[in-house]
From TrEMBL:
Its main location: membrane. This is Glutamate receptor ionotropic, kainate 1 isoform X2. Disulfide bonds join 81-334, 729-785. Belongs to the glutamate-gated ion channel (TC 1.A.10.1) family. The record marks 645 as: Crucial to convey clamshell closure to channel opening. The lineage of its organism: Eukaryota, Metazoa, Ecdysozoa, Arthropoda, Hexapoda. It is a multi-pass membrane protein. It comes from the Eukaryota.
Length: 917
């Protein structure tokens, strides 16, 4: 019973479906194809066949196809009118091979919907609204495609410089927005037409390798020529590991590029294609692959868009036709105006419906994602898939809002991948630099370190950082190698400047610096403990001592012949028998020494000639002493005197010290481009010096300062300056830092690894590694310059060494005085021992004990009467001076006897000698 009911239900269903098929409204559609467009025709047939197979679809489509032998507008018009005469309700095609829009004009006049699926050079909005009102194009507009490429290149890839190679005018139109991607430097974008090199394409790639200095290329060409072009470019090393290619043709994946892909194709090649709603065809698993499956699997744009055009029209036609009470077939004439008939109204409704449909309103689904037609019949909304054509690996999706979203590759696809991605092979970076201490030096036991970024690298040595030739507009050195993409990283004392940033990119700075002046520091004169003798030459000191002796003897002689210098030795005796002259040799010498020492004397001359002589001696002593004091100050402070050049302003205001900088470097560029008055004046002076004050390297400048020994100053960056000062005690920095600059790693414009390098530098800075490296390589831990730090005092204070001679003279005088005093003490001890008839030891002991009793102020006459203080006080002279008194008495007696005659004439009484005298 159950089986009977099931058989009855199936039979009834078949009868119902057959009845519904008979009730479907037949709609005729026409298509125009050129030769060799079999794939389009198969897609056209497959789409309508799939729709007709949908049992619940209310329409049944009958197709009419016509074929164009060539691009003949007259034939095209005839074929179009022939299709219309067959009563077609839609016209599909032709492709862009047709050079005119005759089909669109006929469809516009008859009201027949016209479906397009290929690009044409776009007309203006006014023309679309006037003569193409019945046309709907499911292919993305060229302007929208151009905007998509701009978003990918500028926003996602951040390419600032690249070269465009295009094959056709249509391809150039697809790239029109890229022309304005970089407005600062017009040379950043270079444009080459491939067809201009049709005779020998090798010339094009040779120019690209040698003259264009490029590593990023945008290529728009037909898929049929893509393989040959890239194979030729490979011979010129344009497919190296750091070269990047962007293919803009939406059918680049259909070429045989993946078949020739090998290790030589290490360039990072990416392309774009329309994003499909279907799963990736390469992931699909079918037991039987038909020809149309292969066509759709290749994802070729035109067959897929033909399919979408059919789906769009069929769903719009169904919605309109089934909504009508009675379907009115289109008119079967091209020249409706001749018979006074208006265009087909249903066709206008169908076109309007196509503009309102979205991908959620159709059955079956569109093959391309995000299908939407605007009010002008153009498709400005769509999705693009960014992929690697060499391995057919999807990377990201671009959407019409401008966002680029990366996609994750399924593990199944990765496991199924047969062709390895050679662009992901570990690359070796070329690091370009030059020998410059301490940034790059040759070390015997070197090894390659990888601190944070784990990559392989090799060094390339060049002659310098890079100079810009104002005439040829070309660079050399490190910058040249980066521009030519012969190296990937430039590292040295490379200053970040605006001019360099036009040609290369820089990472974040790894060192801050400025400009200062390197100058020579003379050796300090050795310390001399007899520096107080330096104000006068040796012969001056000899003449000064001889003058002292001569004046002393002259003074004694003048005193003896001067009547005013003889005086009464006993003022209480009004009638002395003899006179005394105080100016004997010792007193005269004491007056001369006291005068020149500015200490004076307790006795002074009385006569006019003597006073005149003393006055002249005082004048002489004053001049000598003043001259000595001034010269002494100059001599003792000469070693502390610093250079009069203490700043850049001092440097430009003098003319005996030349100064310069490294020619063509960032320092010379700073002065040449500065608007500061002092800096500009310094630059003009540097240019005027003969011979030239510029150097070819910093090392030459440092050596020139060293050899100049104060006649040359070198303006250089403070980092290199401090390094050289640490290693040479004869070098010094004068003046403050000028300006502020930074060192950074240089990379080619738009290098994708620049961000990683910057992040790594920031990490090293935060960890203190950069500070440790600078302290290690800049600081000279064996520096001996500070051993003579006392010679580098800033003030004019004198050291103990320079005043040591003064202390030695003082000490010598004290020693001599002590020796004489001791000798006099011993002589007195001997005399006491004789007079008092005691042993010398007893006399020495008694005299020494008394000398050590500092609190006793009076001394007894005899050592045996130490307790008789009254007798000691009654004596007018001490025992120590008794010998001197007796000598004085004998001297006076002698003088009196010699002058007895003169004394006798003055007094009638004879000479009287008291016991005291």
């Amino acid at each position: 019973m159950y089986m009977c009911r099931e058989f009855f239900f199936i039979t009834l269903l078949k009868i119902s479906i057959e009845f519904m098929d008979e009730r479907k409204t037949e709609v005729k559609v026409g298509a125009i194809f050129f030769k060799n467009e079999e794939a389009l025709e198969l897609s056209f047939d497959a789409a309508f066949q799939q729709i007709n197979n949908i049992k619940l679809f209310e329409l049944h489509f009958i197709t009419f196809k016509r074929y164009m032998p060539n691009d003949d507008s007259y034939v095209l018009q005839q074929l179009t009118c022939e299709l219309i005469s067959n009563g077609v309700a839609a016209l599909f095609g032709p492709t862009s091979k047709a050079s005119n829009d005759i089909v669109a004009l006929i469809a516009n006049s008859t009201g027949i919907p016209h479906l397009q699926y290929d690009w044409n050079i776009e007309t203006t909005i006014e023309q679309l609204q006037l003569n193409h009102r019945m046309s709907v194009n499911v292919a993305p507009t060229l302007s929208a495609i151009s905007k998509a490429y701009w978003d990918i290149i500028k926003i996602n890839y951040d390419w600032k410089t690249f070269t465009i190679f295009y094959q056709s005018e249509q391809g150039l139109t697809r790239l029109q927005d890229l022309m304005g991607i970089h407005t600062v430097n017009k040379d950043a974008i270079k444009l080459k037409r491939i067809t201009d090199y049709s005779q020998d394409i090798r010339v094009l790639w040779k120019e690209a390798a040698e003259a264009l200095h490029e590593q990023r290329f945008i290529l728009d060409c037909d898929p049929e020529t893509l393989v040959d072009l890239l194979n030729t470019a490979k011979d010129f090393k344009l497919l190296g590991p750091f070269k990047q290619w962007f293919l803009t043709h939406l059918d680049s994946h259909s070429s045989s590029l993946k078949l020739i892909y090998n290790e030589q194709f290490k360039a990072n090649i990416t392309g774009v294609r329309l994003k499909l709603n279907d799963l990736n065809p390469y992931e699909r698993r079918k037991t039987r692959i038909t020809l149309i499956d292969q066509i759709f699997g290749n994802q070729t744009m035109l067959p897929i868009l033909m399919y979408d055009a059919v789906i769009l029209y069929a769903n719009a036609a169904r919605n309109i036709i089934i909504s009508l009470k009675e379907y009115q077939h289109p008119y079967k004439r091209c020249d409706l105006g001749r018979y006074g008939r208006s265009p087909w109204l249903v066709g206008r409704l169908i076109v309007k419906e196509m503009k309102e449909l979205s991908e959620d309103d159709v059955e079956p689904l569109f093959k391309t994602e995000n299908m939407k037609i605007d009010e002008n019949g153009q498709r400005s909304i769509f999705n693009l898939e960014i992929y690697k054509p060499t391995v057919n690996e999807p990377l990201a999706i671009w959407k019409s809002d401008g966002l680029v979203t990366p996609i994750r590759i399924k593990q199944e696809f990765q496991a199924a991948a047969v062709i390895p991605d050679f662009s992901q092979v570990r690359r070796t970076y070329i690091v370009v630099t030059h020998f410059e201490e301490p940034y790059f030096m040759l070390k015997a036991d070197h090894e390659n370190f990888r601190e944070l970024m784990d990559f392989e690298y090799d060094f390339m040595i060049v002659g310098g950082n890079g100079k810009f030739n104002q005439i040829t507009k070309e660079w050399d050195g490190i910058i040249r190698k980066l521009i030519d993409h012969q190296a990937q990283i430039g590292i040295s004392d490379l200053t970040i400047t605006q001019l360099r940033r036009k040609y290369v990119d820089f990472t974040v700075p790894f060192m801050q610096l400025g400009i200062s002046i390197l100058f020579y520091k003379r050796d300090a004169e050795p310390k001399n403990m007899f520096a107080f003798l330096q104000p006068f030459a040796k012969e001056v000191w000899i003449y000064l001592i001889l003058t002292q002796l001569i004046i002393t003897l002259m003074f004694v002689f003048m005193a003896r012949i001067s009547n005013h210098e003889w005086e009464n030795p006993h003022p209480t005796n009004l009638e002395p028998i003899e006179l005394e002259n105080k100016w004997y040799t010792s007193n005269s010498a004491w007056l001369m020494i006291g005068s020149i020492m500015q200490q004076g004397c307790d006795i002074l001359p009385r006569g006019g000639p003597m006073r005149m002589l003393v006055g002249m001696w005082w004048f002489f002593a004053l001049m000598i002493l003043s001259t000595y004091t001034a010269n002494l100050a100059a001599f003792l402070t000469s070693n502390k005197m610093q250079s009069t050049i203490k700043s850049l302003k001092d440097l430009i205001e003098q003319d005996y010290v030349k100064f310069g900088t490294f020619h063509g470097g960032s320092t010379s560029q700073f002065f040449s481009e500065s608007n500061n008055t002092d800096y500009h004046k310094a630059w003009n002076q540097m240019k005027s010096f003969q011979p030239s004050a510029f150097t070819s390297s910093n090392k030459e400048g440092v050596e020139r300062v060293r050899k100049g020994q104060g006649n040359y100053a070198f303006l250089m960056e403070t980092t290199s300056l401090s390094y050289n000062i640490e290693r040479d005690c004869h070098l010094q920095q004068i003046g403050h830092q000028i300006g502020e600059k930074h060192y950074g790693l240089a990379v080619p414009l738009g290098a994708d690894y620049r961000t990683n390098l910057s992040v790594s530098l920031l990490q090293l800075s935060e960890k203190g590694e950069l500070y440790k490296l600078k302290n290690k390589w800049w600081k000279n831990h064996n520096n001996t310059c500070n051993d003579n730090k006392e010679a580098d005092l800033d003030g004019d204070e004198l050291s103990i060494i320079e005043l040591g001679g003064v202390f030695m003279v003082l000490g010598g005088g004290i020693v001599i005085a002590i020796v004489i005093g001791c000798c006099e003490f011993l002589w007195n001890v001997q005399r006491v021992a004789v007079e008092e008839r005691v042993t010398p030891c007893e006399a020495f002991k008694a005299e020494l004990i008394f000398a050590l009793k500092f609190w006793i102020k009076r001394k007894p006459i005899r050592i045996s009467s130490g307790s008789s203080t009254s007798r000691r006080s009654s004596r007018s002279t001490s025992r120590r001076s008794s010998g001197q008194s007796k000598q004085s008495k004998r001297s006076k007696i002698s003088k009196r006897s010699k002058h007895s005659k003169r004394s006798h004439s003055r007094s009638h009484s004879g000479p009287k000698f008291s016991e005291r005298d």
